[in-house]
Amino acid sequence: MTAEVLKVTIQRDADRVETFDVPAYENQTVLDVVSWVQQNADPTLSYRFACRVGMCGSCAMMVNGVPRWTCRTHISKVVDGNAVMIGPLRNLPVIKDLAVDMDPFFDKWVAAEGVHHGALTRDDEIAPVHETSATRVEANAGIECINCSVCYAACDTVASNPDYLGPAALQRAWTLLNDAKDEGRVAILDAVSGSGGCHNCHSMGSCTMYCPNELNPMSAIAGLKRETAKNFFKRGR
Q1: Cβ-based neighbours of 230, under 8 Å, separated by 6 or more
Q2: Do residue 114 and residue 198 come from a single domain?
Q3: CB–CB of 166/200 below 8 Å?
Q4: Rg of the chain over all Cα atoms, to the nearest angstrom
Q5: Are residues 93 and 109 in the same domain?
Q6: CATH number at residue 208
Q7: Predicted structure pTM score
Q8: Residue 18 is part of which domain span?
Q9: How many domains does the chain have?
Q10: For residues 150 and 109, what is the distance between their CA atoms, to the nearest angstrom?
């Protein structure tokens, strides 16, 4: 990137985009660019961020049509010539400008039974966890999800089917299904086998391709498909 000025186009709503001239700097991130616009050109611009170091996931946006963490995306890696297009995450309602409503995303975690189902009390002994067991390895594979919803924005199935639970919720369900301390196996399998469940996934792999933490939701969803199928035939006997 050699230009001294970036042409930054920001999607303000469905029918309105605005372009700003932003000074280019070395090691500049997309979030730096958005912050510059808000601080120097238009203080009414709304967006969301917190940690700035790839820990919280709240700064995720569409950058040239691709969902990304903007705090960890250097502008030099995505700029086309000296231009870049930034918009709100797709598949979620827009509150204002680049800030989206995350409620539908988290509601689907609940719908997928993505909450711990405990059975022990404080008086019971702590159940052992065997770190090398096959189920624990599967559970560990998804625990670094930070709920950024990049996979949700990348998913074409979510775009065409608003009832689909989505990659993150299904990966969470798979993690709990393989957690020896979780007692919700029946509830989880029932939740993810319904009309918006895992069998809606077309295995296109966008969730895995774009996950900033290099997780593999598509593999988790495939696991749920296998287990729900086994559960169906087991109950049918």
Answers
A1: none
A2: yes
A3: no
A4: 20
A5: no
A6: 1.10.1060.10
A7: 0.93
A8: 5-100
A9: 2
A10: 15
Are 94 and 108 in the same domain?
no
**Residue labelled with tokens 């979620």:** 92
Same domain, 94 and 114: no
Statement to judge: residues 47 and 141 lie in one domain: no
Q: Which phi and psi angles does 166 have, rounded to 5°?
A: 95, 160
Mention every residue, 6+ apart, whose C-beta is less than 8 A from residue 8.
Answer: 19, 20, 21, 22, 33, 34, 37, 83, 84, 86
Amino acid identity at 197: G
Same domain, 153 and 222: yes
- pLDDT tens, residue order, the chain (237 aa): 556 999 999 999 888 999 999 999 999 999 999 999 999 999 999 999 999 998 999 999 999 999 999 999 999 999 999 999 999 999 999 999 999 999 999 999 999 999 999 988 889 988 888 889 999 999 999 999 999 999 999 999 999 999 999 999 999 999 999 999 999 999 999 999 988 999 999 999 999 999 999 999 999 999 999 999 998 888 765
For residue 146, give the 3-state DSSP assignment.
coil
